[in-house]
Design goal:
The protein is mainly beta. Strands 1, 2, 3, 4, 5, 6 and 7 form a seven-stranded mixed sheet that branches.
Length: 428
């Protein structure tokens, strides 16, 4: 590590890199011209998660005069293979092919004597590396009432029921957690605590006990809120994303699960129960000592200050993803416009390719790339494909490994359509 950057300081023994921007491909359609300010000697990261066939464009003013301004993509593929791809600045969009768990753009401004540089990052992608289901019950806002926040305290649990799609694992949880120290004491301008008070909670995933209530614990984690402190304001739900990638909470079949939130530690900065109204009816539960022994209560059967909680919900969201990445098992990529299929897969000498279009005829071009994104071969396709074309791809001279057949097309009017790729495994 270069001591000029301060990493040799004994008080900074373990610098940690975090993405400036983190984008979930299942929740976003693209990234258009996001500015990233690069300080001299600085490094910035932009990360895409769960992304299939992403094209990245990096622009900067007078990039040719800045030889130490560089861009690379660190690619973590869904197959478990990692690679690094060098990207040109101010070039046309560059393809990072395949189904990838994460693609992290690393921007480096290595000239210590240069002024800051504004870099613009854009990206488009075909879809997600895994088929993904985002389950949302709330309407996106805290309830507009006097009981939209309730203090629970130690020993209480708030939980929401989810029914995972078959063959999926729990990938992410989105929780709009707020804490007691973000609110003022009624009738005063004084807050309930200090900004530096601990802000943490326990996230628990329960299996259904067979009677519609949380049962055995499948997973539990203490989460320290990384967001900067700020008073609670506005009606929009301030979701904190908890990534469970690698936990493999799956194998659930048709069983329901419950995602619960509760206190962590012994501090007095209580986790608040923030209520929303629902856009899609769900089951929200609260566990606590109401009228005797602690037990689970349906939120809709409770009252606060004489006001019924009927119609309210606890706004927790969940993301489930398929256990296998898109296309790896079937080698088939589908969209509204195009189906691209390769078989047999793996192939030894010849891969048979089927390309079907589902929209207006147009011109298509195709090329084969390796796992580093390098073009191995360009293919000639018939002009004006109307619906279907089949051809054999000779792979007999290729080294064993994973390749991607990338097809891009435009309509007869010249309008660009999305590009698509299918994996081809060459076996020897």
């Amino acid at each position: 590590l270069d001591p000029r950057f301060g990493y040799a300081d004994p008080e900074l023994p373990s610098p940690i890199a975090r993405p400036t921007v983190r984008i979930d491909a299942s929740l976003n359609q693209g990234l258009s011209g996001a500015p990233v300010l690069m300080q001299a000697g600085g490094v910035q990261y932009v990360q895409w998660q769960n992304v299939l066939d992403i094209e990245i464009r990096v622009d900067a003013v007078d990039a040719a005069k800045r030889p130490r301004l560089r861009a690379r993509a660190f690619v973590e593929s869904a197959s478990g293979e990692n690679r690094v791809v060098d990207l040109d600045i101010q070039a046309s969009p560059q393809l990072v092919a395949g189904a990838n768990d994460r693609v992290t753009l690393v921007l480096m401004h290595g000239d210590l004597s240069a002024p800051p540089v504004s870099v613009t990052v854009g990206a488009e992608w075909v879809g997600t590396a895994y088929e993904t289901t985002n389950v949302v019950y709330d309407d996106g806002e805290f309830a507009d009432s006097a009981i939209n926040f309730v203090t629970l305290g130690d020993g209480w649990i708030q939980a929401v029921r989810f029914r995972p799609p078959t063959g999926t694992v729990l990938q992410k949880v989105f929780v709009p957690v707020v804490y007691l120290n973000q609110f003022t004491i009624p009738g005063t301008n004084q807050y309930n605590g200090l900004p530096q008070d601990p802000r943490d909670f326990t996230l628990t995933v329960y299996r259904d006990n067979g009677f519609g209530l949380p049962g055995d614990t499948l997973f539990q984690r203490t989460v320290v809120d990384p967001r900067p402190y700020g008073p609670s304001s506005g009606a929009s739900l301030p979701f904190l994303e908890v990534d469970l990638d690698g936990e493999e909470i799956g194998g659930l079949g048709e069983s329901a699960i419950f995602i619960g939130l509760s206190e962590a530690g012994s501090d007095t900065n209580s986790l608040m129960l923030g209520l929303s109204t629902f856009s899609d009816e769900d089951v929200s539960l609260v566990f606590g000592p109401i009228g005797g022994q602690p037990k689970w209560f349906d939120l809709w059967n409770l009252e606060v200050g004489g006001q019924s909680l009927m119609g309210y919900s606890i706004p927790v969201r969940a993301q489930f993803r398929a256990s296998e990445p898109v296309g790896i098992a079937s080698a088939e990529i589908r969209s509204d416009e195009l189906t691209l299929q390769s078989f047999p897969n793996p192939a030894t000498d010849v891969a048979h390719i089927v390309l079907e279009t589902h929209s207006a005829s147009g011109a298509y071009e195709a090329h084969l790339v390796d796992v580093l994104g390098r073009r191995v071969r360009s293919l000639q396709l018939p002009p004006g494909i109307v619906s279907r074309v089949e051809f054999d791809l000779d792979v007999s001279t290729l080294a064993a490994g994973l390749y991607f057949l990338h097809v891009a097309g435009s309509t007869n009017s010249g309008t660009h359509r999305s590009s698509h790729s299918a994996p081809i495994v060459v076996a020897r």
